[in-house]
Design goal:
The complex is a heterodimer.
Chain A lengths: L2 H10 L3 H25 L14 E9 L4 E9 L2 E8 L2 E7 L3 E2 L6 E2 L4 E10 L1 H31 L4 H15 L3 H23 L6 H27 L2 H9 L4 H16 L1 H14 L11 H12 L2 H29 L4
Antiparallel strand pairs in A: 1-7, 2-3, 2-6, 3-4, 5-7
Helix pairs in contact in A: 3-4, 3-6, 3-10, 4-6, 5-6, 6-8, 6-9, 7-8, 9-11, 10-11
Chain B lengths: L1 E10 L5 E11 L4 E5 L6 H8 L7 E6 L2 E2 L7 H7 E4 L11 H11 L5 H14 L15 H13 L5 E5 L7 H16 L3 E5 L3 H7 L2 E6 L2 E6 L1 H6 L4 H10 L1
Parallel strand pairs in B: 3-8, 3-9, 6-7, 7-8
Antiparallel strand pairs in B: 1-2, 1-4, 4-5, 9-10
The chains are: A alpha+beta, B alpha/beta.
Chain lengths: 336, 243
Amino acid sequence: MDVSTKSALLKKNPTYFLWIGVFFLILTLVVGLLYYATQKIDYVWRWYRIPQYFVYYDDVAIRAEIEGTVKRITRKNGDAEVTVADVGVEESYNVPGGEIRVSEGDFIFPGDVLGSFGKWKVGILLQGLWLTLKVSFIAILFGIAIGLFAGLARISKNPALKWSAISYIELIRGSPLLVQIFIWYFVLGTLINTLLRQQGIPLIPPLWFGVAALATFTGAYVAEMVRAGIQSISRGQTEASRSLGMTYFQSMVHVILPQALRRIIPPLAGQFISLIKDSSLLGIIAIRELTKATREVVTTSLQPFELWFVCALLYLVLTFSLSMVLQYVERRTLYQ
Amino acid sequence: MIEVRNVYKTFLLPYKVRALVDISVSIEPGEVVVVIGPSGSGKSTFLRALNRLETPDSGHIWIDGIDVMNPKTDINKVRAEVGMVFQNFNLFPHKTVLENVTLAQVVVRKRSKKEANNTAMALLEKVGIKEKAQVYPDQLSGGQQQRVAIARALAMNPKVMLFDEPTSALDPEMIGEVLDVMKTLAREGMTMVVVTHEMGFAREVADRVIFMDDGAVVETGTPEHFFKNPIHDRTKLFLSQIL
């Protein structure tokens, strides 16, 4: 908003800035109340313990695997190499950083620490966040593909296609996602993996059953949006493209779908945001996404307040970014 | 060029309407035929039946010797040879003017992008709108949009052009520019079937005028015959109401 529109707005509605003030007053009030409430309860806030669940500095010990004496220690560019030798065997261990705990001639048993080095490691919350992002992203891609196909089948004149699509949509939309995840993992997953095991083919990890559950679930909603989007494009567009000699498929790809998809970006954004949040249910089938990761940390650290707030904030980061990306896409595809 | 014999069409929804009743028309190459009649008389249905946007219930239609009504006929091939211009333009809003004119050339006629662009620019120049090639249809006036729609249809090098009330959705001051383009086409020898309420155009350009009412052809003849001494009472009544 530039200055001239702002002043014009002010002239038209002199209380405009007053109401902005009211908004911030309410915001401060709510936050203040929340703070007051947390001060009143018997809870010790330990925010300083949260960062370690994102990244932490860990000491990695390098241990001997054989029995023998330390034959030689060579240093190079700050790193060190410890050579342990016994009759007929000799092994070398590289210690980055060169922090050695033994000296030449020491007698070593298997499992003895030769040296150690510090290393930054990714914490469990960040791992969970990454897994949530990965599962959601793959599920969104498959969800779009399934939804596009099912949506087109839904408006097809072929009864086999049409009724299959209706059955799929109604079945999926009408049953709880939690139950669908159970079915995908415990019923279909067991069936498929048992068959694979009998054939000697590597098993499919739970992650993919989780992705399948989310993608089919989202696909059903996307299908209805695609159908509504296509039907909202005027018949004249189809007639014009068909009258030029385009086939049904060509007309869909070049004329109808580009317009329909653009129109359904806002509801799609809502659906995908839902999907990111629904991925929190995947914890029940041993996928350690953000929510399950948080639950695990809470049981060990006993800091539920901080951790659940952080968890919610991380979901907000994901959903808000997605929302922004889709708004950008919507603006970019504006034809003018 | 176009041969229509004993065509019937009845709409059942939303209520039963006999849209075409025993229509038989023969149109020669290069002929300009104007179809007039009151609204609901079946003019548009007749026009849309020619490229099977509406499928008649019975009868025969041949275009350039191809049986349009035969289900085995590749209707897309027929439609590529029959250009159509709509009342509401129906330009593709997500494509620029140039893309509107090149799309079907590339997709249907399999022309190269460059060839399609050249054809498109030549046609846009012909309809007098070359400088708007890169803008989107929303930024054009109705008359300009309709001229782009004509260029889009012409880009397929059609043998026949069908016009479905091309000026009915236009502001009065824009009708002329569209009619001028159509007159040029007619002079160049294009076979044209035009559904319109523009009696001036009919009188000036048409080789033949067909008057339809209640789904049937009531009267047909040259513009002089038609506007000077029509035979049927229904025709006289219609002309008295609009002239």
